[in-house]
Amino acid sequence: MSPLCTCLWFNGKAEEAARFYTSLLPDSRVDSVNLSPVDTPGNKAGEVITVEFTLNGAPYLGLNGGPRYPFTPAVSLIVPCEDQAEVDRLWEAFSDGGTPVQCGWITDRYGLSWQITPRWLLEAIKDPDVARAKRVMEAMFEMVKLDLAALQAAYHRS
């Protein structure tokens, strides 16, 4: 069986979005841009219907399906960041035309939700010391863009 591929439904901006995403993440590229041979509800014959792209080594398909099914925060992509500099870089990029939400979540200019999250946090919230994990979660709930130093301070507070 081939690896799973996530299909993301766009309203005419699949190629633009794919090029934006692949410019931000390592091991990413646009693999193919495919034109529709027929008119569809989302586009005309000869227009881009799908874009195959890779983000951080994982395959995605962008589909220009039209306005019928917009993204919701019920599905988001998590970007585990190595440090605050990476959080800041990605946060700034996704903020351009996007909407910051809470707890490291941001909706980009195409409507897709992302979680820009320090990798450290993903481990800290699983800490067997429930008090530490609780302090980190409580600190995170107070943030929009995540602040790694503040999260670590909450973790180490006694």
TrEMBL record:
It holds the Pfam family 3-dmu-9_3-mt. CDD domains: PhnB_like. This is VOC family protein. Residues 5-117 form the PhnB-like domain. It comes from Ancylobacter koreensis. Signal peptide: none annotated.
